[in-house]
Automatic annotation (TrEMBL):
Protein name as it appears in the record: Lon proteolytic domain-containing protein
Keywords, alphabetical: Signal
Top-level lineage group: Bacteria
Annotated ranges, domain Lon proteolytic: 154-236
Signal peptide span: 1-25
SUPFAM superfamilies, alphabetized: Ribosomal protein S5 domain 2-like
Molecular function via GO: ATP-dependent peptidase activity; serine-type endopeptidase activity
Length: 263
């Protein structure tokens, strides 16, 4: 037997499942990570007391200025992210909400993900060395490059590693520094052939760069729009697509000769 509900009672009954769904949404973990600007490190200097770039088999230069690789810090792959953190991240320019799969490879536990990121970093370092020596025409000369950077994983420091090796060995090619004495930061993967690839979290990395004194930021060409979206005041964006393009842009900045690309 069915009975007809009055409108107020009907609304009250209908509200019960909605309230239950909202309560569940508030308390349930969501497949997101919350990221913020991370550390930066000068690849021309030392990290935790150890030189980032060590070269044997060839003389190196004493460099001025800095080439800073940039990172983001994200909540762990096993962190429970609630809807309040997601909403807060959308309105906070110092944080970003990203799909967890965009930050971490799926299907692995925390230790497996750490090992994956370590492999990505090693492959990036190897590619940076190959690209830099190839650019300089010095591959096959018996030059050995060791790259050390503690507590950082992933491939996005490739460009800055390669530029650091070039600066250590050859500078700007005319006796000066690639940086022109500036604090230059950047991000981007790199291939053995010197092609620069896109990475994630660029708006957060520009904030980290400016926080740590950078005035120039090298960004993969494909990510100019992302970098412009929340660009800190006083930071100049220079889009790059290859290692050669990055070197040419830095030379042009220092000498005032040639074109400096802009986003």
């Amino acid at each position: 037997m069915l009975s007809r509900l009055t409108r107020p009672r009907a609304l009250a009954v209908c509200a019960l499942p909605v309230a239950a769904l909202l309560a569940t949404a508030v308390s349930a973990p969501l497949p997101f990570s919350v990221a913020r600007p991370g550390l930066t490190a000068d690849v021309l200097g030392a990290n935790q007391g150890t030189p980032v770039i060590t070269v044997s088999g060839a003389p190196t230069r004493t460099t001025e200025g800095q080439l800073r690789m940039t990172t983001i810090e994200a909540t762990g792959p096993d962190a429970d992210i609630r809807i309040g953190e997601v909403i807060g991240g959308w309105f906070d320019t110092d944080r970003a909400v990203m799909p967890r799969d965009a930050v971490y490879p799926s299907g692995g536990d925390v230790r497996e993900i750490e090992r994956y990121n370590e492999r990505q970093m090693k492959q990036s370092q190897d590619a940076a060395t190959t690209a830099a020596l190839g650019y300089l025409g010095r591959d096959g000369e018996g030059i050995d490059v060791t790259l050390r950077l503690a507590d950082v994983g992933g491939p996005s420091a490739g460009l800055m590693f390669a530029l650091g090796i070039v600066d250590k060995l050859d500078g700007d090619g005319s006796g000066g520094d690639l940086t022109g004495g500036r604090v230059v930061a950047g991000t981007g993967t790199i291939t053995d052939g010197g092609v620069v690839g896109a990475v994630g979290g660029v708006p957060l990395k520009t904030q980290a760069a400016r926080r740590d004194g950078a005035t120039v930021f090298l960004v993969p060409k494909a990510e100019c729009a992302d970098a412009r979206a929340e660009l800190p005041k006083g930071l100049r964006l220079v889009p790059v697509g290859t290692l050669k393009g990055a070197v040419d842009a830095l030379r042009a900045l220092t000498t005032g000769k040639g074109e400096v690309p802009a986003c």
